[in-house]
């Protein structure tokens, strides 16, 4: 029973984050969606301690993004800043692999020339 509740909680968080990504500029949405999918997939077989930390951090991300999306309602995308600064304490707690992933994410999100030309579907 506890396993079912945990799986439901993980799926709910995952889906909520993807829904919130719909409000991001298209290039950030594509990058964010792929990152979320990869991270959740990567942590499917994580241990209890790692899962607790993983869920806490993704809940924090969801809450921050939700607040920023609500604050951005009615604003123009290019005037809205999404994201948050990482404290030195949090950075010091990261493993080498996480630092590497964070660097790759930063490089990809700040590229002036995107690898793909992503366009929204017009309905």
UniProtKB/TrEMBL annotation:
Superkingdom, natural source: Eukaryota
A Gene Ontology cellular-component term: mitochondrial matrix
Keyword NAD: no
Transmembrane domains' residue ranges: none
InterPro entries: SDHAF3/Sdh7
UniProt-annotated location(s): Mitochondrion matrix
Key words of the record: Chaperone, Mitochondrion, Transit peptide
Lyase in keyword set: no
Biological process annotations from GO: mitochondrial respiratory chain complex II assembly; succinate metabolic process
Function: Plays an essential role in the assembly of succinate dehydrogenase (SDH), an enzyme complex (also referred to as respiratory complex II) that is a component of both the tricarboxylic acid (TCA) cycle and the mitochondrial electron transport chain, and which couples the oxidation of succinate to fumarate with the reduction of ubiquinone (coenzyme Q) to ubiquinol. Promotes maturation of the iron-sulfur protein subunit of the SDH catalytic dimer, protecting it from the deleterious effects of oxidants. May act together with SDHAF1.
Subunit structure, as described in the record: Interacts with the iron-sulfur protein subunit within the SDH catalytic dimer.
Family under the similarity heading: Belongs to the complex I LYR family. SDHAF3 subfamily.
Listed PANTHER family: DC11 ACN9 HOMOLOG, SUCCINATE DEHYDROGENASE ASSEMBLY FACTOR 3, MITOCHONDRIAL
Protein name: Succinate dehydrogenase assembly factor 3
Annotated organism of origin: Maylandia zebra (zebra mbuna)
